[in-house]
Request: fold
Amino acid sequence: MDPIEVEYEPTSVKLVLAEMKDTSELIIDLAYSAVLHGGEEMAEEVLELEAHMDVLQLRARMSLLLAARTPEDAETLAPVLGVVGAAEKISNAAGEIAQAVLSESGIPDEIRAALPEALETMVRAKVHRDSPFCDMTLGGLNMETDTGIRVIAIRRKGKWIYNPGPEERISLEDVVLLRGSEENLADVYENVTISEYKLTEYVESELVDLERAVDSIVLMKNMSELAVDLAYGAILFNSEDVAEEVFELEAEVDALQSRFEAWTLRAAASVEDPIRLRGLVHLARATEEISDAALEIADGVLRGIASHPIVAEAVQVSDEIIIRITLGPGCDLDGKTLGECNLSSETGMRILAIRRFNTAEWVVSPDSETELKSGDVLVAKGTRLGAERVAILTS
Reply:
């Protein structure tokens, strides 16, 4: 792909940072979906987004350099440059994953048998002129409520719309990214594209060491994505505690990568063609780089450097927001488990972490059995509409 020529133009650093955050989060999802489905088209979308991220980071750097007129300015803006660099690093890592999918060595089919547990299915669908969804608003379709399938992004005439709202209208030739359970995706995909949806075939591995390696990558992927979310949360709330959790997650991913390398080397001795494991090695390395980038995002907070307000503002105005909210006394969620609350399906918000009432204890990536109590502080991620619903339930 030829480099895109970039010239300076006056721009809002806050909006560029917000777009970089949204792009880096979407590109991770797309990259792993390309792995899961062996999807060359999805991998190509990743590479297009990576090129777009290159342009965004150059524009952000130009604006920040022009803004630094004194040593004090440089000291204040240095952490912002760190966030810009980390977002680009995430994009580059996703590009490595896409290249592994597209390369001759590719990704072993065995990995697809493990990833469905770690990843909701995502598909790319181009709107056909005969689609019944064409020229309908997302609110009018009521797709998420009726089918559990969510449109997470739309590419229209080369531009991306992240987390489109209910008023967004689906147009002819749009490329929509759909996420949800594979069984429900088939009907939605076929209505959008007027073509058959092919179910993914999964190949079970007979190699124990390869299964262990794949399980490690699944865990690394989940931890890396959580680390990125928490890193942005640490900046938004200027929380050293949350930044410390990012540090711990990055260390765990490093340890997992070491174990992965050992298991892959053992598996290579039992595989007829060890070269086919190269893609798996690239995937693990790229996943570890994502966790490194998350730590870079939180680095300023860890060092006690107050985050520049523009970064927190960018996180707040991005399409998927992070909120911190306290459970009020006697609220609907008090005394219930997350499974009983069903917050994810009811509000679309994902609980990233919980700080227990009157303690320094954090529960990171809580599961369905985690019980909520009055006074707990929830850190959650999702849409603005979802945040409003959570606010009602916790008050």
Observations:
- DSSP finds 14 helices and eight strands in the chain.
